[in-house]
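Predict structure. Input: Molybdopterin-dependent oxidoreductase, 422 residues.
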Amino acid sequence: MPSAPPGPFRPGFWRSPLRGPWLTSALGSILLILIAIVATTGFLSHAAYMPDLGHNAIVPKDRDLPWIASFFDWPTSPSWLYGLTQGLHTNVGLIAIPFLLAKLWSVIPRLFSFPPVTSPAQAIERLSIALLVSSSVFELATGVMNAQYWYPFKFNFVVAHYYGAIVFVTSLVLHVVVKLPVIAKAYRERGVLKPLRDDLARTKPEPRDDDGLVTPNPAEPTLSRRGLFAFAGAGAATLLVANVGQSVGGPLRKLAFLAPRREIVPGDFPVNKTARAARVTHAMTGDGYQLKLRVGDNEIALSREDLLALPQRTAKLPIACVEGWTTRQEWTGVPLSLLAEKAGAPGASQVLVESLQPAGVLRRAALTGGQIAAEDALLALKVNGHDLSLDHGYPARIIVPALPGVHNTKWVGELTFTPRAA
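Output follows.
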């Protein structure tokens, strides 16, 4: 067997006495719980888009996971449901970052093992680890960029993040299955929490292992295993405090220094996209504005004054975005069920909402019959007692309980209802 090159490939290069099967297993166990929450809420967000409907699919339908796309209709109650799932997705994802970095640190000798491959079985294992590491870094890095509204990449974030999640979850499941005997042995021999009771003076290297995580010439410890977990936990808590305010609101919102603030004027609430960014002009939304209600070949045109003359409903509802921020405001407008009746499709099974926005992947969204029928599903004309501003969707926007923020379409120009089958 050829000798290892100098540097990190040498067995004695990595000298921390903390590394070993127990440390890696313990960090991995914490990370597994966090990632399970992030993955579950991420796939729930994908399902909330209802990609089987109309123009909702961002991921091409023929390249999607059918059981994720269509096994249930996204509900409209409780109204805070989507805010909860995406708040968990974003904030738990941030919490996972320090523990992922600690986990990578704990296995770094394995990443530099030499020779890299000694058998076909090991080659498969190394490939799965490469997929796991690269996909986890990709998912967390692009997720943070998206939450910060920073898009240096040239690909569609939603599509890439979704496919990356599938690769990540698949490789993680395979990795856990392969490593279960190692994890069980580590916990059986050293206990689940016992090594965390050792202070710095009692911190000793783990017994030598077959994977080469335990160094043959350990240095004196400068940090206990308990201290390592505390350090990762402190990093996770800092990231949580720096972001969670945009999800839960209240006094914590002021502490969320990492959360992007999208105030149009002081005291206003956030928007994802301004009218200027969407290329919506006052000419489109001025006195000549008309909302078109369609059922088949029949069409009704309503001015904003006509809409204001219809029975109005007021409801306090949240807008929750995939980036993890949530805002709850008081909306006033016409119930969508009433507009369906006026169009000639009472109890409609679906509606296609089209924005005045001239372009963009989300300028059209389809809603289910259940979403139309929800008591507080509105074509909103006012917010907090005042006319919508242009950036908030004037002259009319959709607001439906528990719906993803991007499906609360702004600058609504057309509603095409599909009658319920007899």
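The chain has two domains: 21-255, 275-418.
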